[in-house]
Design a protein that fits this description.
mainly alpha, single chain, 175 residues, 5 helices, elongated, Fumarate Reductase Cytochrome B subunit
Amino acid sequence: MTATTYDRATIAFHWTTAALVVVLWLLGQTADWFPKGAPREVAWSTHFTLGFLLALAWIGRLVWRLSGGRRLPGVGPAYMVKLSAAVHGLLYLIIAFVIVVGVGNLYAHGQNIWGLVSFPKLSDAALRRTISETHEWAANILLALAAGHAAVALVHQYALRDGVLARMWPSLARR
């Protein structure tokens, strides 16, 4: 019998990654709205901690995908299958890029996380600004691509009715 849904680990990695990307983007956009001092430090420490969790999820997801994750055949015409694979590859690459530039941003600004770990400031103001802007642009592109990915999943579910979304829906996983 051919599997029709992804395995539980693949689904968990997918939805964990999606949630972390959205929450990290929201925190990145709003952390400076918090009053200076402890509230803002907590917001940024949360952002950095969740960014570290995203890095772990990304690595775990990549290892799982390359070693044991269930692979399902593409749905639709060949061009849609190729486009889907390209978008998924791009999502993996952009997530990695956002994480790497985020770590660079951490060092560029010299941050303190939860009062437990301090990163020294390693760059001048111009480089800090460039790294910050690059991280922000990459995160915005990631969020836009992820939103497009979600929109296409909804089109598959409600317009094409081909079961693509159901393959990644948690309640339907069998393993």
